[in-house]
Fold this protein.
Amino acid sequence: MFELHPRLTADTIPVTDWPLCRVMLMRDANYPWLVLVPRRHGVTEIHELDQSDRQTLIEEIAAASQRLQNLTQAYKINVAALGNVVQQLHVHVIARFTTDPAWPNPVWGAVPAKPYADSEMTRLLGAFAS
Amino acid sequence: MFELHPRLTADTIPVTDWPLCRVMLMRDANYPWLVLVPRRHGVTEIHELDQSDRQTLIEEIAAASQRLQNLTQAYKINVAALGNVVQQLHVHVIARFTTDPAWPNPVWGAVPAKPYADSEMTRLLGAFAS
């Protein structure tokens, strides 16, 4: 049975469920940042998904990336499945800007997470979920 | 026409061409590290590939990940398409170990690249290309 890792639950806000992935917004206003988690039990690597799920995953990654770019006019989209700390397979889809606090470096560990203003979070959640 | 970014050419050793991607080994003995570059002109984001290329890309990512894990017994595989510095779409597939110099952080910028011994590079290239 699919269960979200407690760390992912704590760090994100649920946005919607797509055919394969649960889509969540990272609680970090430094970057518009989605996390996609395939709703499969015990999977930690992309190559552990079956081919059908992999084909769905890449389409959901592309859809999340396109939506983020359309919503934010991001300069670059970063896509990553790392999982060194939280092993449950999860894919980061992050809108990057040359003015963001980590640019041009990866976001992980760059600066502390910045809380969202309620109004901004509501706006983003509405836009992503629509 | 497909051309590899000069920075990618400088930082890697060619391994083989798969149906979509040029497969390269990063010149960094700190981590067994492949870079996959779709042989398409002017593409910087996964969502800019057409669906057929995306489906091939995820299968080539899975094949590279499985091969790296089989060859190295890695603890975790990191997969990432960042492109903040080199915008040409390229996917990192990195074998991670709890004993590697960046663990558990991402590898980018963690420690300087470490040159390969010729013998180790020859062994890895042979294994990946086979």
Remarks:
- Residues 57 and 63 of chain B are 10 Å apart (CA to CA).
- Chain B has a mean pLDDT of 96.
